């Protein structure tokens, strides 16, 4: 039963950890004095845009948490079903033991002595009785353990399922709150002048560069597939929470591009920034994932020559820009 206790502790730990992680506090927007100048308004919009990228990442982390809770619940249900099947497997033997006890009555050492033809026969009968008793005891212990495991697994499954349902409800609420902030941000953004909108966009997402006509050679065929898939999406709209094929957010674009090389990435910039191996700015190669800010809330795909392609920010399409834009924090080589 040591394995059962270990499994229970592992499930309990997973449930507690993921339940804690889902408690993403978006909170109300901090109180800020109303802007009195156009520059202040532009700064406020830029600040809000940066906050939105962080909230976007929080929601993606919550989505991963919900998925993990659902996996824990499914695993627990599978173990419960296996344990219940194990109990059912022993049921015929339990019925046979009960039937024998009812029809034949208990067999004792005295009965064996009285029915034995010799001392040797007596010893043989006693040995047989001991074996039967040991088998019966072992079977009952096994069945009892299986029943305990089934009950524990069932309890774990119910707890994990309840946590998953609660986490999903919290996530849906958070998504609605972020969407409301996105709508407000886009409304504020459109009220800026063209020059102010351009300044805010460059501040948040770097300057737009032309798609290069020639690219640095990729280090591998897979890396080339990632770069080609990302560049093919240039001009597609930024869509919060989307991973293609017609709209993307930042980690959705990297996820989509890596899928072209047969690599599955989580839809989370923070999670992607923890994959593969770290590479320095001077070691960047086409196909590397570059990430921004602390905590990480934005990613792009390096394409060579100091450039990257990324799903930029709200209201702005996928574009090529300098990898050295504000907030650069590091890079990972996943392939």
Structure write-up:
The protein is α+β, with helices and mostly antiparallel strands. The chain has 2 domains: 2-195, no CATH class; 206-333, endopeptidase domain like (from Nostoc punctiforme) (endopeptidase fold (from Nostoc punctiforme)). Helices cover 61% and strands 8% of the residues. It contains 8 helices and 6 strands. The protein has helices at 2-21, 38-104, 109-115, 119-190, 194-205, 221-231, 250-259, 269-272; strands spanning 277-279, 289-292, 298-304, 307-310, 319-322, 328-333. It has a 6-stranded antiparallel beta sheet with strand order 1-6-2-3-4-5. Strand 4 (307-310) and strand 5 (319-322) form a beta hairpin. Mean pLDDT is 75; it is low at 1-33, 102-106 and 110-114.
Task: Put the structure in a nutshell.
This protein has 335 residues and is α+β, with helices and mostly antiparallel strands.
Number of domains: 2
Proportion of residues in helical segments: 55-70%
Low-confidence stretches: 1-33, 102-106, 110-114
Cα separation of the termini: 42 Å
The general outline is elongated
Number of strands: 6
Mean pLDDT: 75
Strand content: 5-15%
Q: What is the helix/strand order?
A: HHHHHHHHEEEEEE
Can you count the helices?
8
Structural class: alpha+beta
Largest sheet: 6 strands, antiparallel
| Rg, Cα atoms, Å | 32 Å
Order of strands across the main sheet: 1-6-2-3-4-5
Protein name: Cell wall-associated hydrolase, NlpC family
Domain NlpC/P60: 220-335
Signal peptide: 1-33
Family: Belongs to the peptidase C40 family.
């Amino acid at each position: 039963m040591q394995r059962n206790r270990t499994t229970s502790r592992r499930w309990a730990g997973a449930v507690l950890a993921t339940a804690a992680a889902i408690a993403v506090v978006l909170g109300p927007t901090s109180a800020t004095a109303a802007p009195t100048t156009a520059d202040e308004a532009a700064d406020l919009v830029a600040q809000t845009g940066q906050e939105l990228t962080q909230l976007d990442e929080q929601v993606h982390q919550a989505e991963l948490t919900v998925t993990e809770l659902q996996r824990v619940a499914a695993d627990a249900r599978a173990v419960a079903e296996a344990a219940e099947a194990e109990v059912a497997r022993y049921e015929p033997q339990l019925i046979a033991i009960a039937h024998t006890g009812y029809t034949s009555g208990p067999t004792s050492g005295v009965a064996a002595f009285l029915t034995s033809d010799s001392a040797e026969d007596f010893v043989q009968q006693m040995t047989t009785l001991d074996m039967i008793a040991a088998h019966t005891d072992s079977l009952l212990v096994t069945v009892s353990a299986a029943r305990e495991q089934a009950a524990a697994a069932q309890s774990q499954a119910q707890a994990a399922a309840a946590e998953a349902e609660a986490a999903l409800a919290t996530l849906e609420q958070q998504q609605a709150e972020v969407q409301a902030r996105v709508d407000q941000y886009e409304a504020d953004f459109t009220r800026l002048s063209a020059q102010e909108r351009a300044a805010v966009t460059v501040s948040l997402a770097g300057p737009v560069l032309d798609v290069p006509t020639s690219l640095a050679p990729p280090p591998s065929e897979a890396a080339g597939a990632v770069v080609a898939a990302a560049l093919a999406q240039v001009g597609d709209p930024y869509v919060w929470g989307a991973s293609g094929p017609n709209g993307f957010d930042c980690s959705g674009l990297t996820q989509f591009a890596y899928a072209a090389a047969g690599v599955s990435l989580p839809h989370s910039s923070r999670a992607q920034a923890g994959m593969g191996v770290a590479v320095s700015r001077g070691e960047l190669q086409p196909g590397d994932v570059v990430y921004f800010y602390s905590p990480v809330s934005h990613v792009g795909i390096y394409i060579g020559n100091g450039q990257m392609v990324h799903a930029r920010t709200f209201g702005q399409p996928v574009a090529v820009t300098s990898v050295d834009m504000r907030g650069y924090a590091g890079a990972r080589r996943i392939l």
